What we know:
- This protein is of the alpha+beta class.
- The chain has a single domain (about 5-135), classed as Roll (Nuclear Transport Factor 2, Chain: A), CATH 3.10.450.50.
- Strand 4 and strand 5 form a beta hairpin.
- The chain has four helices and five strands.
- It is globular.
- The protein has a five-stranded mixed beta sheet with strand order 1-5-4-3-2.
Amino acid sequence: xxxxxxxxxxVRDFMDTIWNRREFNQLGRFLHPDFADxxxxxxxxxxxxxxxxxxxxxxxxxxxxxxxxxxVTEANRSVIQLTMKMTHIGEWRGLPAxxxxxxxxxxxxxxxxxxxxxxxxxxxxxxxxxxxxxETTL
Length: 138
């Protein structure tokens, strides 16, 4: 039986350490050797390197900070509702940097095994972010 509060803490620490602080040397503390990120864009491998590449790509386009608004953890699964505070600092989807600050909301799903994240999926509306940036640059 998995420890719910331990799993919830792993997810919270992962979001802060990896997504917010980009301390990729800490990936081994959080990710299972068979980790798969099933929400990465086409062309990125679903493992550790693909995740790191995606965070680096995102960080070139946006200064970003994720805040967990709600978290539900049961057994080996944890879902977070998050708010991403973002400033557009580099090209994204063909749009040059605008300096615009915005907030995006979404969800992340994690499945854990043996105290490590083995699977991740995300639902964050990139089209809404793009629309907001395009509206403010017209």
